[in-house]
Specification:
The chain is mainly β. It contains three helices and 27 strands. Keywords: Signal.
Amino acid sequence: MVFGVRVSWAVFGVISLPFDLVLAQNYPLVADSRCNCYRTNTSTSHYFRNHKFFDFRSLSQYARVPAPINTAQGNADAAVTSGYFLSPEWTNTWSIQNWNNSAMMGGNSDITGSDATVLMVNSPNNIYIQHNDDQRASSNTYLVMRTMRHDDFQSAAEIESGSYSYQYLSMRMLARTKGPPGAITAMFTFRNNDTLSKVQESDLEIRTSDPVQYIQYTNQPSWNEDGNIPQATRNVSLPTKLGWSDWQYHRMDLPDPVDTRFYQLLVDGKLVSSIQFQAPKDPSQVIFNTWSDGGTWSGNMTVNSSAEMHVQWIELVYNTTDSAPAPPPKPQICANICSIDQTSKTGTPVLVQEPQNPSNPGGGSGPGTCTTAKYGQCAGKNWSGCGSCASGTTCKFQNDYYSQCL
C-alpha cells in the first residue's frame, strides 16, 4: 500500500463561519510530520494516513481575472492563468482539464449519461486566483472556477486529482456559488466505467436554478432506462438562514466499505443527509467543477452570462491504494493520532493522542499501553484506541459512541 500526503475518512458537510472556532480544544498544533494517523469527529473507529490542505486565502501575488476567450479551441488551448498552477503544491495533486463533451452530444443519454444541447469546453482560462473584495472579507484571495455561455458554446472549469486511488476519504471546502440559473458547481468522487450502471460517483452539487437553501447529494447513477432512481438522491434544504451563495463549509465523507457504505453530510456540524444506496466501494478520483451544457440537469445559461464557484480552501484526509488495496491503518501503528476537526487553526492538525513516556509504567505505542490527552476520546462503540486517560483526567461517558478524558 502506498500512502499519499495527509489523511481521514468520509463525511460531507456545510458550516457557517467562523469555522476556526468550531470544536477547538486545548490540543497542541503540530506539523503533519508529527502525525502517524488521523481521525475524524465521527463515530467511526477507522484511522487515516494522509492529509492535504490547499490554501487559496493569501495568494495576492497570483491574483488576476482573465478575460473570457470567445472561441472553443482557444479555451481548450489556453495557458494556465498564473504561476501558482504550475507549482508543485498544485501539480503534485491536481490536473486542470481541457476536454469537451462533443462525444457525448446527440447520443442515447442512457448510454452516454448526457442530454447536452450545447458544446461544453473545459478551459484553464476559467480557473484563477481573485482578490476578495467582500466587506469584512475573511480572506485576501480565493480560487475561482468559472463557467460562461458564449454565442455557440459553453466554457467550463474542472480540476481532477492525478491519483485514482482515494478510497477512504473525508473531503472539505470553504466555498460559495455565484451566478444566474443554468449552471452547476460540484465537489465529488468518481470512478469511471464504460457501462453507465457501473460508474461509482458521489456528488455534492449546487444548481443555480435552485433556491439558495437547496443542495443536491447523489450516489450516481441516479437514473436508468426506467427513469430516475429516487433512493440515489437527497435534496437537502439547509437548516440555516445562509445559502449556497454565502461562504459555507462543505464536507463529504466516504467510509470504509467494509463498515458502512454510505456518505454523510454536515451542516453547522450536524449530519444532514446520508445515502447507503450505491455508495462507492472502490478507489476513485477527487474532482471539482463548474459547468453547464444546456441539458436537463444544468439548464441553459443566457449568452454572455457566467457563474462561479469561489473556494477559500480545500482539505483532504484519506487513505490511498496506489499499489494494492489495503484496509485503513490499525491503531497499533498509530502512535501519534491527530485531528483536523478539533484544531483552532484550519488546515493545521492537532495532536490528540500520543504514547505514554516509555519510562512510565504502561508506556508504549499499542492501544492498550497508550494514554489519551485531556479532551480526547477514551471509549465508545467501535472505539479501538487508547482506553487510559492522561494523569489528572478521567474517562467520562458522553454517549454510546463517545467517552472523553476530562
